[in-house]
Amino acid sequence: MRFDIITIFPEIFSGVFDFGIVRRAVEAGLIEIHAHDLRDFTSDKHRQVDDRPFGGGAGMVMKPEPLFRAVESVANRSPEASVVLLSPQGRLFSQRLAEEYSRKPSLILICGRYEGVDERVAEHLVSDEISIGDYVLSGGEIPAMVVVDAVTRLIPGALGCGESAKRESFSQGLLDYPHYTRPAEFRDLRAPDVLLSGNHAEIERWRRRKSIEKTLRRRPDLLRDHAISEAEDKDIEKILKEIE
Ligand code: SAH
Description:
Helix content is 37%, strand content 16%. It is of the alpha/beta class. The longest helix has 19 residues, at 200-218. The chain is elongated. The termini are far apart. The relative contact order is 0.13. The model has no long low-confidence stretch (mean pLDDT 94). Bound molecules: S-adenosyl-L-homocysteine. Residues 86-89, 111-113, 115-117, 131-133, 135-137, 139-140, 143 line the site of S-adenosyl-L-homocysteine.
């Protein structure tokens, strides 16, 4: 899979992808990440990417021409790419969307700055407008990093053996179960005995229960959106009664 990132700060990406799972995925040839300098797609002497807003008001707006030219140039190489604008006004990014993106051959990510981009970019250039949460950042670069990271770890082969995306939070509409490691007792705090028991069926049941319990306590909204089997439904009802 190929990621093309359009930004006025391409250097910001050097380093962040050089660690862990993303680095391994690049080295294994599973993904390619290219950061493009938006100023390379300007045609004036000052390489200007922003201008004052029509109608007045504070701040600057990103001009449409360099963004259109940048996307058109990059899309030449990847005609089947989805064009994503990072924006606080977009659809909320989620594990489900990350899964959808991980099946695509190519993503073009546009990072806004200043007051944002000329609305014609949002309306006519991009296929998706994506927000990483209900807060305003100063640029789309960190959101682009979030998307690249979340999508990469879902590409088959990106996670090493022993790591699995299937059991993680959100993947089944549930939060992950709690994890423990050595020592079994740390400052009088004991890891749950069942995990040391070696009884795999028991461990599985305990994890499933904890997973449901945590989700009920912290994110009941996830359960509402999740297709629940009858057996699960009974589990959930039982746990609900117990924690009430
Ligand atoms: N005036 C805009 C905010 C601009 S913030 C508004 O109120 O909607 C500048 C840029 O940062 C945006 O163009 C976008 O690319 C990026 N950005 C800020 N917050 C973001 C978020 N929550 N998710 C994705 N991108 C964000």
